[in-house]
Amino acid sequence: MKKITYIILMSLFLIGSASAQQEKGIIGTENWLDNWTDFRPKVADYGEPNEILTGTITEDMRLNKRDTYLLLGNVFVTDSVTLTIEPGTVIIGDFESKGSLTISKGATLIAEGLETDPIIFTSNRSVKKAGDWGGLIILGDAPTNKFGNGSVASQYPNLEQSSYRYTNYGGDNPNGNSGVLKYVRIEYAGKKMRRGGGDGFNGLLLAGVGNKTVLENIMISYCAGDSFKVMGGEVNLLKAVSYRSSKNDFNFNLGTQATLNNSLAIRTPYVSSSNGARCLQVVSYEKKEQVDFTKKGTSLLAKNLTLLNSSNDLSEHIKMGLIKEAVFVGEHASLDMNKSVISGFNPAVILDHRITINQENLEKIKFVDMYFNNCKGNIFKENNSNNEDLENWYGNRSFFNVYAKSQNSETFIDLNNPKNPDFRLRINKIIAANSKN
Questions:
Q1: Could you tell me the residue ranges of all domains in the chain?
Q2: For all residues of the chain together, what is the average pLDDT?
Q3: Cα 238 to the center of its chain, rounded Å
Q4: Phi, psi of 166 (to 5 degrees)
Q5: pTM of the model
């Protein structure tokens, strides 16, 4: 009888273990990257466009899957207008005219793809490269920490004077609703401007976007600007993927109040801007004189992220200066990061040199239940040669952080599968290491 009971208990344990999932990093009982993502977009052929989108859209419009659309120049969806995009629709950004799509403040985008039929924004070049076209911009009426409202006019090349009013963002409505962006891929965006010609585009720019906007299952790959750039507003991002961005994967600024959940950033040592780039940047301003410090600074709750450097020779790439930090936290910004994985960086996190290391500020920058793997240093202060106090603080057992030195191939389920990679952690592969260096 005892033997039978033992066999039953062991069977239940094995069944439970087989169906279990790792709680750190991206999670899911199944690989949620399947079907709708594409880690090899260069081999895709979407055919030639048969419809053109240009100028301003002043009436409600529906884009159909049966057609392929070309974004010609700066296309604006104006106030009170709704643009609906059917699942499976392909929108191609024009290289020569730096095609872009802007959802202006007060307008609505309903781009709700399906897991088996995502909406795709991509390049019209035969040999596609990062920065082939502009990108997608959504502007809302939620608060920022700027004096007054803002404008993204400097993003665009050769912007006509009559279109300036469509580039404004910000207001006092945190519950603003700019629509739905779900099961969407944005490829080869982030067109750079010529010297003196503006700031350049990003993959997806969200400025003053409110918390009623749905932002889920969005993949941005091979972007020459930031993949996801968020300026103010209240934004909730779920299952967002940034793949091989030249600049930052996720950039939060200007008083954004945001959550980033169950999301992934994959970097490579050979793709980065000359100014460096991070998986996650959390700052409250670029120019101090532009912000009102009586307003909220940027605050991000980040949970179940996987931030991965895909280097196959980490120490050599670090020596060559090709690998930097994964996370940067600026002055007057707050980050609460938990149950996340940072693997293969130099170091994992850097805090702005202007941040005073004291109890008050450390309570605004939290790293709890983390998995730091194969990083040359973990949490440092910028331009500081001695970070022992920080390492000891975040290394305290009460934070439940884990430090390890394992190869990516041993850490993640199947990252070398070219078609359907799986970046979830392997079950029971988290082993704490004694050293944090």
A1: 21-425
A2: 90
A3: 10
A4: -85, 0
A5: 0.93
